[in-house]
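Project standup — Tuesday

K.O.: blocked on the structure for the chain from last sprint. Re-posting the sequence here as requested.
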Amino acid sequence: MSEGLAGTAERVGFHAKVGVRWSDMDVFQHINHARMVTLLEEARIPWLFEDGQPTVTLRDGAVIADLHVRYRGQLRHDDGPLDVLMWIEQVRAVDFTIGYEVRAGGADPASPPSIVASTQIAAFDIDTQRLRRLTAPEREYLESWRRG
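H.V.: unblocked you, prediction finished:
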């Protein structure tokens, strides 16, 4: 997977390349919905949950509060690795929302995405089984990826 910032301020985002497995296909030969949700998860892991990121603490407790996936085009096995662009849409006290654009590998970044999605993730304290507030370092890091 690769990472980086997109060009202009309104296009700020983290890029991840996500491989498509043969098992990600359905009978119609495009990526199955449940597998697409997994591919989105695989894309955000190196951005938010790997060692060295201020949001690594979310590995110990985070829950998906909401998920939307809109299909504007089909993606197939041969379109991989997929180019997933992610950014922060909103940061609140206990949660944040990630925006996604998914394109076939090698597609022009200015071309319309095949998939547009969003995921709302809430910080969660496993021990108390309650939502927790995002820490100042978590919020600062997330805000740095916000489009504005």
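K.O.: great, moving the ticket to review. The mean pLDDT is 91. The first helix runs from residue 33 to 48.
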